[in-house]
UniProtKB/TrEMBL annotation, chain B:
Protein name according to UniProt: ABC transporter substrate-binding protein
Signal sequence interval, chain numbering: 1-25
Gene3D superfamilies attached to this UniProt entry: 3.40.50.2300
Domain Leucine-binding protein: residue ranges: 30-377
Gene Ontology biological process terms, A to Z: amino acid transport
The family this protein is said to belong to: Belongs to the leucine-binding protein family.
Native species: Vineibacter terrae
InterPro entries to which the protein is assigned, alphabetical: BCAA_transport (IPR051010), Leu-bd (IPR028081), Leu_Ile_Val-bd (IPR000709), Peripla_BP_I (IPR028082)
Keyword Transport: yes
Lineage of producing organism: Bacteria, Pseudomonadati, Pseudomonadota, Alphaproteobacteria, Hyphomicrobiales
Keyword check for Signal: yes
Keyword terms of this UniProt record: Amino-acid transport, Signal, Transport
Length: 337, 393
């Protein structure tokens, strides 16, 4: 019998190789292109983090962007110079107000904070199943947003927090992406991951086999929040600004769309979906400025990106309703499934 | 020797030299201004007219020989009214060889693009960011705003109210954006300085999410005596709604607002509005006390068929004017040189008004503003008002 860890590792290594190639090519490209690649990689960490919970449990989550925000705010609390913090966030407790950490530990702290929040929220949330659970996660997003945008003395409210050091370079983003791919693959291959997927396929049968579904869901929820929280910190250091409205519906929908389009039941799907949507939206954005093919030049049209993306998503979902990968994993070709 | 024989070689040499220098100006690489602004999304409405004004300035300057003998050129990248896209748009225009960049006039929405330029040591100009944080403190040493600061708006309104003999005031503030909060803060401080602490008879806040401000109105109506003047620090679309509710409730006292209520696009929603005043960087209705502003507005109308949406438009023109002045003084378009030249600006005469910068302050405080009024649904300029003292400065 094949070891699930070896299978997962094969998939992870193939995906890692793809990320590494993109990163290596990216370092040779212009600053603008690099930013686009970094942005896509951060989204990939978010989508992979979501996949750990969504893919394995079968419950769609609309709340993970709340964890992203928490990670970003944690990074802001820990890395913005204390002199700026004093005027922007007068309500911070002393140990945060005086902190001036390096972005790397701050990113890990962002992940830990998101995990802790996931643990607290997850205890009631994992009691729910199906659509109710998804609506529950959406409610969580709304609560997170309300806190971020109204607790002015600690989060800056509607205004933006600035003064974050630059950290998220292309190699850093690629490194974290690879770590997340490995983390997601390891969880997927673990006994807990198996039990959770069992509950996804048939909850009654899983329970009859002695699986504590709530416990497994909670484990996946906490792990997935960790990676999304880290992504939040990376995002904060990428934008160098943290503002509440960034962590709400728009990013929620684009990341959920990435996961669904790629195929939310496989790790490869999460990666493929992110890559596909990110690449397509960039191509369309370039097309907005007009395409010059030498012989013919096609005039640009502002707003093409949004419309084109929606059409492409519809086409994918009509012809491949289970996503691009259809829930299959990327493996070495000669091995039969 | 006939004069002609003597003169013709001289003349032809002169023509040759002239045409050569003209050809040189045309051949020379243009100075590229990168505009990383919103061309789609909800901010696009704010960015469009200042960009048009900048294009007008570029055209005029190029017709007059350019800057340092080089023509100006604006290249664009769309931020899509999204904060993260700002950085990408800025990198794109810089990749296209932009010598300096113009960003969206807002601390949040223009900030990411401005920070990107700053990190590369390039000048980033927000034509109309009114938050004083847009500058050295919030962005970096290469960030400049050509707007008049929000503190000035509140100050001008308070001083105008005092000059009208209005002794008591009530401040109603919308809390969704920093601008309204800081206009209100400055107004309250200055009004108390001028008329005593008791002159501010009450304050209240509302949010865009509030469907009505009926409770706020009830509280104002409960005051006896009624305040002489009401500050309504707000922006559209919530502002006109609030204004209509106040008037419908029978509150007829003068109402003051910041420049976010500039323009007449919302006026139809408050029929027969009277006794409404706001401070703006200029009048877009052709009756500005300064003739050069009126000339600009007329030119804009001739070109685009309508007057600019708001007076923010003036800043777009002024930015290009200032770039020319700074580049010619510095003899270079290098960002460090431009920065140094900008920081020596002392009441520089630009379309939007006298403009000064120093090493710490990259936005204008002591610049006069036009107080505008609406009477019987018609806009007109009241006066040009220079702030006397800005609270906290």
């Amino acid at each position: 019998m094949r070891s699930p860890f070896r299978d997962a590792l094969t998939t992870a290594l193939l995906l890692t190789a793809a990320v590494a190639i993109v990163a290596a090519i990216g370092t040779q490209l212009s600053g603008g292109t690099q930013r686009i690649i970094i942005d896509a990689m951060i989204k990939m960490i978010i989508v992979l983090g979501m996949y750990i919970f969504v893919g394995n449990s079968g419950l769609l989550s609309f709340g993970h962007i709340g964890f992203l925000g928490l990670g970003a705010y944690t990074a802001a609390w820990l890395t913005i110079p204390p002199s700026i913090k004093a005027s922007l966030m007068p309500g911070l407790p002393d140990f945060l107000a005086t902190a001036a950490l390096h972005p790397l530990p701050a990113a890990l702290a962002g992940g830990a904070a998101a995990s802790l929040a996931a643990l607290l929220v997850g205890i009631p949330l994992t009691r729910l199943a199906g659509v109710a659970a998804s609506i529950g996660t959406f409610a969580m997003l709304v609560v997170f947003y309300a806190i971020f945008s109204n607790w002015t003395s600690v989060t800056g409210g509607q205004g933006s927090l600035y003064g974050l050091p630059v950290f998220t370079s292309l190699p850093v983003a690629a490194g974290f992406t690879v770590a997340t791919i490995l983390g997601a693959a390891m969880y997927q291959a673990s006994a807990s991951g198996f039990r959770l997927r069992g509950s996804r396929e048939d909850a009654v049968a899983a329970q009859a086999s002695g699986i504590d579904i709530r416990r497994e869901r909670l484990i996946a929820f906490v792990i997935s929040a960790f990676f999304v929280g880290v992504a939040g910190a990376l995002y904060a250091h990428f934008l160098q600004v943290v503002v509440a409205r960034e962590f709400y519906l728009k990013l929620t929908f684009i990341t959920v769309a990435m996961l669904v389009i790629g195929g939310m039941r496989s790790l490869s799907g999460a990666v493929a979906g992110t890559a596909f949507v990110a690449f397509l939206s960039e191509v369309l954005r370039q097309a907005e400025r007009g395409i010059d093919l030498g012989v013919v030049s096609i005039g640009g049209r502002l707003g093409l990106q949004e419309v084109g993306l929606a059409i492409a998503m519809l086409i994918v979902l009509i012809f491949r309703p289970r996503g691009i990968t259809g829930g299959r994993e990327l493996t070495l070709g000669w091995r039969s499934r | 020797m006939s004069l002609l024989r003597f003169a013709s070689p001289l003349l032809s040499a002169g023509i040759l030299a002239l045409s050569a220098s003209m050809a040189l100006a045309q051949d020379k690489k243009p100075i590229v201004i990168g505009a990383a602004i919103a061309r789609t999304g909800f901010i696009a409405a704010y960015d469009a007219d200042p960009a048009r004004a900048a294009e007008m300035a570029v055209k005029e300057i190029n017709a007059a020989g350019g800057v340092l003998g080089r023509p100006l050129k604006i290249v664009y990248a769309d931020t899509k009214s999204e904060i993260p896209q700002g950085a990408i748009a800025a990198t794109e225009v810089l990749d296209q060889g932009a010598d300096l960049i113009i960003v969206t006039g807002d601390f949040d929405f223009g900030g990411t693009a401005a920070r990107t330029a700053n990190a590369q040591g390039k000048i980033a100009i927000a034509p109309f960011a009114a938050d004083p944080k847009f500058g050295v403190e919030g962005i970096g040493p290469f960030a400049f705003s050509f707007s008049t600061a929000s503190d000035t708006v509140g100050t001008v309104l308070a001083e105008f109210a005092a000059s009208k003999g209005w002794k008591t005031a009530y401040a109603l503030t919308q809390t969704n954006i920093q601008y309204d909060l800081s206009v209100s803060r400055a107004f309250q401080a200055r009004f108390k300085e001028l008329n005593g602490n008791a002159a501010l008879v009450g304050t209240d806040t509302f949010s865009m999410d509030d469907a009505t401000i009926a409770t706020h109105i009830t509280r104002i109506k409960a005051l006896n005596p009624q305040p002489d003047v009401l500050l309504l620090s707000t922006f559209t679309p919530a502002g006109p709604g609030a204004l209509r509710q106040l008037r419908a409730a029978g509150l007829q006292m003068p109402i003051l607002s910041g420049e976010d209520m500039d323009g007449d696009y919302w006026l139809k929603s408050v029929p027969n509005l009277s006794n409404f005043y706001f401070a703006a960087m200029g009048s877009i209705f052709g009756d500005d006390p300064r003739p050069d502003v009126n000339k600009f507005i007329a030119g804009f109308k001739a070109l685009h068929g309508n007057h600019p949406s708001t007076a923010h438009t003036l800043t777009g023109y002024s930015v290009v004017q200032a770039i020319k002045i700074a580049a010619e003084r510095a003899g270079s378009i290098n960002s460090d040189a431009i920065k140094a030249a900008f920081e020596k600006f002392k009441d520089e005469k630009l379309l939007v008004g006298p403009t000064s910068f120093d090493a710490k302050t990259h936005i204008n405080f002591m610049r006069p503003m036009v107080v505008m009024q609406v009477q019987d649904g018609k806009h007109s300029a009241v006066s040009l008002h220079t702030p006397q003292k800005i609270p906290g400065r």
